[in-house]
Amino acid sequence: MNSAWVKHAISEINADYQRSADTHLIRLPLPAFPGIHLYLKDESTHPTGSLKHRLARSLFLYGLCNGWIKEGTPIIESSSGSTAVSEAYFARLLGLPFIAVMPSCTAKRKIEQIEFYGGRCHFVQSAGEIYAASETLARELNGHYMDQFTFAERATDWRGNNNIADSIFRQMSHEPHPQPSWIVMSAGTGGTSATIGRYIRSQGYETQLMVVDPQNSVFLDYWQTRDASLRSPVGSKIEGIGRPRVEPSFYSRRVDEMLRVPDAASVATALWLETQLGRKVGASTGTNMWGRIAAGRADARRRSHRLDSDTPVRQRRALPGKLLQPAVGGGQYRRYCALAGGDRRSGRKAIKKKAR
């Protein structure tokens, strides 16, 4: 098991981690919501540009330490894009072949990034086909199927000092309110929400965890019913979050609140947020932001004085056009922008940005 190659591979991953700085925690002023302190955890500064860089590192270490990954082992992963990009990065670092199994509708930019890191893509027609196709490829190639949807919640060490939950609370330590009222995030595998939920409980914090879910995802329905057989005939249009089936890594019992976010609200809120941050963000960041605003309003109704939220910001070149055009238009778009910004002027500003 402890071959020279495995030792070298683990050393390479650990060295890569040491070369990386922690991601930023951005404080975002919200004049329309006085008394609310809001923070965003900017995971776009990872080498591969997203929160999934943490997950990919953990999955590779998990596979190496379990004896599943050896020198020359082909790595196969089912993904909607971001995890595959990050795993391709680590596969190249270790000199391993990498194949991403993805729906044919995956964004071209994600495909290009995977190929940039030396990976190749195997396409299937729908999101529901990625699991069986990945298992088949791993069997045929005598490779290792990473299976992020099963192993995400157990590969990450939620007790340690190198996970996103520990990072958030360390960075909050000198803020006016070191313990957030809420942490709001969306779920793709469910692994990060499991890590944060377990960490909060282990530390005895009063912080509550809200998971926001896009349309056509079954996570919220499962949280309400505990029916693991739930399926959605179509996948989420918000890239990277929401699933058409209940994933094994989704740890629902440590989620305090869930909220369904309309696709149009996700896109409109992302466009509004761009005017506040001065940078591009993805629709999933809009989903998260919508949830934070909802949590803030709930606190305000209970006469609570603050909301401190931390959640990953994924940087994108542009919002998906196929979603933007049919989902956001006219009065509906203006209404969501105004709600996100807390006033009509914020909505008009985002509308002008969209028009440009």
Tally of domains: 2
Structural class: alpha/beta
Q: What would the principal axes of the Cα set say about the shape? A: globular
Mean pLDDT: 86
The number of E-state strands comes to 9
Rg, alpha carbons: 20 Å
Order of helices and strands: HEEHEHEHEHEHHEHEHEHHHHH
Oligomeric state as shown: single chain
Name of the level-1 CATH class of the largest domain: Alpha Beta
Low-confidence stretches: 302-328
Percent strand equals 5-15%
Q: Can you summarize the main beta sheet?
A: 4 strands, parallel
Distance between the termini: 58 Å
How helix-rich are the residues, as a percent range?
A: 40-55%
- What's the number of helices? 14
Can you list the strand order of the major beta sheet? 5-4-3-6
Look up the CATH topology of the largest domain.
Rossmann fold
CATH-level-2 architecture of the largest domain: 3-Layer(aba) Sandwich
Pathway: Amino-acid biosynthesis; L-cysteine biosynthesis; L-cysteine from L-serine: step 2/2
Catalytic activity: O-acetyl-L-serine + hydrogen sulfide = L-cysteine + acetate
Cofactor: pyridoxal 5'-phosphate
Protein name: Cysteine synthase B
Summarize the structure in words:
The chain has 2 domains: 4-47 and 158-351, Rossmann fold, CATH 3.40.50; 53-153, Rossmann fold. Helices cover 46% and strands 12% of the residues. The chain contains 14 helices and 9 strands. The chain has helices spanning 4-18, 52-65, 82-94, 108-116, 130-141, 148-155, 164-171, 191-203, 219-225, 263-277, 283-301, 321-327, 330-341, 344-355; strands at residues 24-28, 38-42, 75-78, 98-103, 120-124, 144-145, 182-186, 208-214, 257-261. It is globular. It comes from Klebsiella pneumoniae IS43. It holds the Pfam family PALP. This is Cysteine synthase B.
